Amino acid sequence: MKNMVIFDTNAILRFILQDNQEMADSVEQQLSKNICYIPVEVIAEIVYVLLKVYHISRTIIAQTVMDLTDTDNITVAQNDVVRCAMEIFSSSTLDFVDCLLIGYAREKQYTVFTFDKKLKNHLDKI
Fold it and tell me: CB-hemisphere CA count at 13 Å for 47?
């Protein structure tokens, strides 16, 4: 039986970016032996780093995260919410956390209380 291993942002970024082959290979070895669990907080940090540090486009970030959610041995917390948020993120200028809130509203039928007019406008369309 495989173990559940929580991966941090740095490990997942090395896996995505393949910019440190030794670290990327180590992540791949862990994936072959274990099940990778990625919390929503780590997804949010991955999005932030790819966008702000590496200046990767929103559409590529969204596709990359979607690919992670489809990878064998990777379990993404709140997968349905994250996938919904990625769809919104790729086609809007909203912050990723706002996209997550919309995802929770759509996928879980949660009510989001906000004073943010831009976010509220998106929520009103649900």
Answer: 27
pLDDT in tens, 59-68: 999 999 999 9
Residues in the chain: 126
Residues of the chain predicted below pLDDT 50: none
Sorted by where each begins, the domain ranges of the chain are 3-124
Q: Which CATH class is domain 3-124?
A: alpha beta
Q: For residue 39, count other CB atoms closer than 10 A to its CB.
A: 15
DSSP secondary structure of 90-120: HTS---HHHHHHHHHHHHH--------HHHH
Q: Burial letters for 21-38: b for 16+ Cβ neighbours within 10 Å, e otherwise?
A: eebbeebeebbeeeebeb
